[in-house]
Design a protein that fits this description.
alpha+beta, two-stranded parallel sheet, about 45% helix, about 15% strand, globular, DNA binding, Cas12f1-like_TNB
Length: about 120
């Protein structure tokens, strides 16, 4: 997966997550550990540096709460899997989060990044 990311994109942006803190939450621990998040980040970092690509960590604050379309704060619990904003934008929560992470990384990088596909969901 890390090779695919580095081969496909010039800019890779991800949240600077506190994995140790997250793993203390027993509801999230198994998912995070199973996903091998730290290993993916390490491999991607190494391969991106070797290939001359950019890898940017962003502050995870509010990436899951901000509407990626209008910027409004839309409070959600972890169990809420759909982002639905009063502006009319409804999309899978993960897509909304990814767009916000990309925007933060792009603003830090000030260059064009890859497009996160937008798959609107029906209400």
């Amino acid at each position: 997966m890390s090779r695919s990311l580095v081969d496909q994109y010039d800019l890779i942006t991800y949240e600077d997550l506190n994995i140790i803190g997250i793993v203390k939450n027993h509801n999230l621990a198994k998912s995070i550990i199973d996903a091998g998040w730290n290993q993916l980040v390490r491999f991607t970092t190494y391969k991106a540096a070797y290939a001359g690509k950019q890898l940017i960590q962003v502050d995870p604050y509010n990436t899951s709460q901000v509407c990626s379309e209008c910027g409004l704060i839309v409070k959600k619990e972890l169990k809420d899997r759909v982002h639905s904003c009063s502006c009319g934008y409804t999309v899978d929560r993960g897509i909304n989060d990814a767009k916000n992470i990309l925007k933060k990384g792009s603003s830090l990088n000030r260059s064009k990044a890859w497009n996160v596909p937008s798959r609107r969901m029906r209400r």
